[in-house]
Design a protein that fits this description.
Strand content: 25-35%
Shape: globular
CATH class of one domain: Mainly Beta
Number of helices: 15
Radius of gyration: 26 Å
Helix content: 10-25%
Oligomer: single chain
Bound molecules: 1-deoxynojirimycin, calcium ion
CATH topology of one domain: Beta-galactosidase, Chain A, domain 5
Length: about 725
């Protein structure tokens, strides 16, 4: 192979010069748009940098690892050898935004030895894709010591200047923050109005941010920093040095301050740098998925099912009913008592609604004992995950749901007591198997009990993986709330359908909420790592509907809530509002019924982080397309070509749009639904209200529809 020969020559010439000069290698992506430069300095430093179409994207950045056991910083290396290879393959995800994914990269492996004489050998593996670069450290089996305690990873990512950034504060326990948009030099993570309200918060440095971090440079490059395949290792925060614009990794510690305990051979997660001059290409990137291992769930296609759900859920968040049996109102900060939500009769009402409208799942929270003292109590044994409240009849509901062709979705709130959950897991999943449940929503509200581990530390990262693996054994799908931010592991565990791991729609029910640009930022940040259970579909936008004193509201229009089913990709989508709110607006609910949750194809049509996102997607195994368009607080107009449609077909476009006078704040529920005949030549004019959005379904037209429905113009 040419590349290999070239590198060998480069390397050999390097060897010759090693005593006198730095040695450098440059590798290009398969399409040559990205160049990775690696420099081995005579002083032993290894630095890398990245160019995109000849522009600097990443300045020379150092690599290294600080160990606690043995106490040593791995920063100066001898270069023992370089391996290289090229991969070009295509694989099919069990579910996803597209039905087939190309994995095409060049790989360079640097084989290094610690120069200080410890004898420790390390490899750095780089993969150069058309859309970015991934790299990881690999510790092969060592000749001396194989057990390491990591004090911190010393990875640098040096950006070229004071980029515009979309960031949330570095934190060991929660990612449920509103995003800040500022230049890098203005990052101040010390908190503020958008900080989370209910979760354990472990803030540690004013200059620290979480990943995925989205940036835009003054010269028009979009750069996304994150990680892939986070397994048996803590999550990475990035600490910015504002004088040099160098980010340095900061791993989440354990309860006693160590970062990771590792047994060689081991590899760290991949550090990912996705670069493009088009924002839409950041959204389309499959780099993170490609850096994850193929599915470990051999029979996943047989039982893992993308789906929609409703739930005995929003009614608790808006304060109509409670999780606990006595009606104590845990979530909504009200003093008056309300009825228990998860009663047999109420669950049947949701099952009926789901069955009538072709929705597969019904989530039920508050069905099991423990909710009287679950919150902020530091109690280890609150829930057992198998004991229902007396008014929730497990058997009767199993039969009722089965008779209606609907599945009840289990809820396992652990109240942060992950050790307790580990003890109950097997029993709880057997209980689910016995009573016909095939999906579980887990939750980790509060501090991790009992040791004060962190949600994003190594111990919990391993816990989430154990849950994914064990549920897979039981043929159970998972939706994890309050876990570490996703890093593409849904490729490896396709039963792990979705995670929360960001500030969901629920914040709009009981807090200052999510600002109108929130959903235009999430696809560029949190969603880069994997699907989110955002819980869209709220039709009753203002919470004073439930209680005249309430000031809270969803910060979008109603049709933006519809568009989110397309713009916020997830194979598990909730129709989160109450059945009665949908029944009052069946015309708009039709879009939620129609929209798919699994796709053959996705097109990122237009996007700008924090401003707008327009995506079209083709439903799996069908000719139906769905378009979602959302904007931030600004009204916007777009002309969107439907050229992605089959050229030989006519389609019925049903457009769900903001009424001309709609506005997220003053008039959020005003919408218009129109039907037109369109084809691949149509240019659709989308008019989005402030905080608004449009949703469009495009269904191949039947002969009589072609005659009856008027053409779009
Ligand atoms: C927080 C979750 O995000 C929410 O969906 C759930 O209802 C509560 N915890 C209770 O478990
Ligand atoms: Ca949450």
């Amino acid at each position: 192979m040419l590349l290999k020969r070239l590198l060998t020559i480069l390397f050999m010439s390097g060897i010759v010069q090693q005593a006198f000069a730095d040695q450098s290698i440059t590798i290009s992506s398969p399409d040559n748009n990205i160049q990775l430069g690696i420099l081995h300095r005579t002083n032993g430093d290894i630095v890398y940098r990245v160019f995109y179409k000849g522009k600097k994207a990443i300045e020379p950045s150092g690599l290294g690892m600080k160990l606690k056991n043995p106490e040593l910083s791995l920063l100066k290396f001898d270069l023992l050898a370089i391996d290289s290879s090229v991969t070009d393959e295509t694989w099919k995800p069990v579910w996803g935004e597209v039905n087939s994914i190309r994995n095409n990269y060049k790989q360079i492996v640097l084989k290094l030895a610690d120069r200080s004489g410890s004898g420790i050998q390390v490899q750095v593996i780089f993969r150069i894709f058309n859309d970015g670069v991934g790299f990881r450290y690999l510790f092969p089996a060592q000749t001396k010591l194989n057990h390491f305690i990591i004090a911190d990873e010393l990875t640098q990512i040096a950006v070229t200047g004071d980029h515009n950034a979309f960031w949330i504060p570095g934190d060991y326990d929660t990612n449920e923050y509103g995003y800040y948009n500022s230049s890098l030099s203005k990052i101040d993570a010390s908190g503020g109005g958008f900080a989370q309200e209910i979760h354990a918060k472990t803030f540690f440095d004013n200059n620290a941010v979480q990943t995925p971090l989205m940036m835009k440079s003054a010269d028009g490059l979009y750069i996304n920093l994150h990680e892939a395949a986070l397994l048996n290792y803590p999550a990475m925060n990035l600490v910015l040095d504002k004088s040099s614009f160098i980010f340095t990794s900061h791993l989440v510690p354990d309860a006693v301050g160590n970062k990771a305990y590792l047994q060689a051979p081991f590899a760290t997660p991949w550090r990912t740098i996705i670069v493009s001059d088009k924002a839409t290409e950041i959204l389309a990137s499959k780099l993170i998925l490609n850096l994850n291992e193929p599915s470990k769930v051999a029979d996943a296609t047989a039982w893992v099912k993308p789906q929609k759900m409703v739930g005995v859920w929003w009614e608790m968040h808006v304060g109509k009913s409670s999780w606990d049996y006595s009606g104590g109102q845990v979530g909504s900060q009200q003093s008056t008592k309300v009825p228990h939500g998860a009663t047999t009769a109420n669950v049947k009402r949701y099952i009926d609604f789901a069955a009538t409208h072709g929705i597969q799942g019904v989530l039920v929270e508050g069905w099991n004992t423990g909710w009287e003292d679950w919150f902020g109590q530091w109690k280890e044994d609150v829930f057992d995950f198998v004991t229902p409240y007396p008014d929730f009849n497990v058997k009767e509901l199993q039969q009722y749901a089965a008779s209606k062709g609907v599945k009840i979705i289990m809820h396992h709130e652990t109240s942060g007591s992950a050790t307790n959950y580990e003890r109950w897991m097997d029993t709880a999943y057997r209980f689910m198997n016995r009573f016909g449940y095939d999906a579980v929503k887990t939750g980790y509200v509060g501090r991790i009990i009992p040791r004060g581990e962190h949600h994003d530390g190594q111990w919990m990262v391993r816990h989430y993986e154990r849950v994914a693996a064990k549920t897979a054994q039981h043929h159970i799908m998972v939706d994890a709330h309050e876990p570490v931010r996703p890093t593409g592991l849904h490729r490896t565990y396709p039963n792990w359908l979705a995670s929360e791991a960001a500030r969901g729609n629920e914040f709009n029910a009981w807090s200052v909420g999510n600002m109108p640009d929130h959903e235009a930022i999430l696809p560029f940040t949190r969603l880069m790592g994997g699907p989110m259970d955002y819980t869209p579909g709220i039709f009753k936008i203002k919470m004073n509907h439930y209680n005249a004193d309430k000031k809270e509201q969803v910060h979008t229009t109603l049709t933006k809530q519809l568009a989110l089913y397309v713009t916020m990709y997830s194979p598990l989508q909730m129709a989160a509002d109450l059945p009665e709110n949908y029944e009052a607006r069946m015309d708009a609910f039709q879009f939620i019924k129609d929209v798919a949750v699994d796709w053959d194809d996705s097109r990122m049509l237009e996007a700008e982080p924090g401003d707008y996102v327009i995506i079209s997607r083709k439903a799996k195994g069908s000719n139906n397309w769905f378009v979602g368009a959302i904007t931030d607080e600004n009204a916007r107009n777009f002309s969107t070509s439907l050229s992605f449609l089959d050229t030989d077909k006519k389609y019925v476009a049903t457009i769900y749009r903001d009424a001309d006078n709609a506005h997220w704040k003053d008039n959020p529920e005003a919408y218009v639904i129109e039907k037109f005949l369109v084809d691949a030549k149509t240019i659709l004019k989308l008019k989005l209200a402030p905080g608004g959005g449009s949703a469009v379904s495009l269904i191949p037209a039947r002969a009589e529809e072609i005659k009856l429905i008027k053409k779009y113009k």
